[in-house]
Amino acid sequence: MALGASHRLHDGVAAVETMTRFALAVLALASGVYTYLGVRSLLDGSATAVFFAAIIYSGSVSVAIYAFWSYMARFFPHVTGPGARSAMLGVMALGCAMIIAMSSWLNAAALAGSAALEQHLAETVEGYTADLDQAHQNALAAQSLLPDIQRASERFSQLADAERQSGALTGTTGAGSVVQLLSQMSAQMKDLENGIVASREQVANLFEQGQKRLETMRTLVSSPGAIAPRADQFSSEVVALTGVITSLNQTSIAPSIRRAADDLSLGFIAPVADGREVDLANRQGQVMETIRASVAAQSKVLSQAADEILTRPPVAERRFVPLSSAEAVLRYAGDFIPAWAGAISIDLLPAVLVFILATVHGAIRRQEARMPFAERITAAELLEALEVQRALSARGIDIEEALRTAESSGRASPDTETEEEGKITSLDLNKLPRKGPGA
């Protein structure tokens, strides 16, 4: 039974030998084709130079892969010693690493290079979208001060009207120094309000331009067709969008509000009381001091609010780095595991065939080791042994006597055993038998 199983395994190994060579050739050719597609995207120069360079490289890769796995399939299954088997496994691991380095990543670039580049562009769009939103928020932060400035302007204006019409502050109607000061403060607040409103319109226009650039970039990412021209146009849009974001960073009116708030307090110049009566002049002076204190308080509030806006982190400058398809596949390898698995499997699938052959040959050796010698010998070997026996008999050599002598010599000395075995196994069938003394 064991002999039949061993023979069937031998027959199976012989039957799949041609298929093994064919499979290695096909896999090496497939790897070479995808390597050509991957390496072509990395080379620069004329079309002819790129074509021949890619062909030579991919052809070298195909030959190297076929030769490596052919050697492994031929020798690895027959190496049985632990040390030799470990050395062969080390060589196989080194060869697999070199194959991945020179071929598999280019295969992955050919399989998923365009998708990886599109992902790179998509993530770039997300980053610039966040930058545009942050710059827009920073630019609009000063708009939150507009209601306070409007209320302050209206309050000064109302107090001026009340003083002019009913003398609400000094008790004397008319347009005097107090009315003049209140009108001046209202005008300053109105100018600051107009500056904020104008800034809001400019910020809105810049933000609309940025949104249009982002829309164009998103369209380029999702559009069909070759990725290279889309990536070039995408780079142009990135440059334009960067300019919009820089303009938004410089459009913030918070620094102007900070300076205007300081001018309200530091540059406060109260007019001289113009009351003809001493009592009216004193009342005007008291009211103007009150106005000075109110202006100082308003200036402090605006300065603190402007400082909070100015402490916001500015938008960091983002640099867009164009990538090749091979570089994009490496950077986003975790997102394209199926493509990497397919690319590596093309190159390393022959290792499975090598291990199958090693397992089969190991099973054959174990089966044959358990069989007696009479069951292991083949008909051809038996015929050859009979020919040797006839040749020895024709020369007058007694085989049984020679075997007994060899066994006794072997028990006497190992060196003698080696020598006798050498004598027996070195018999030349073409030599004539040695004659004894009485011949």
TrEMBL record:
Keywords: Coiled coil, Membrane, Transmembrane, Transmembrane helix
Transmembrane feature ranges: 12-37, 49-69, 89-106, 339-364
Coiled-coil intervals: 182-209
Domain of life: Bacteria
Chain intervals for the UniProt region annotation (Disordered): 404-439
Protein name as annotated: DUF4407 domain-containing protein
Organism: Rhizobium helianthi
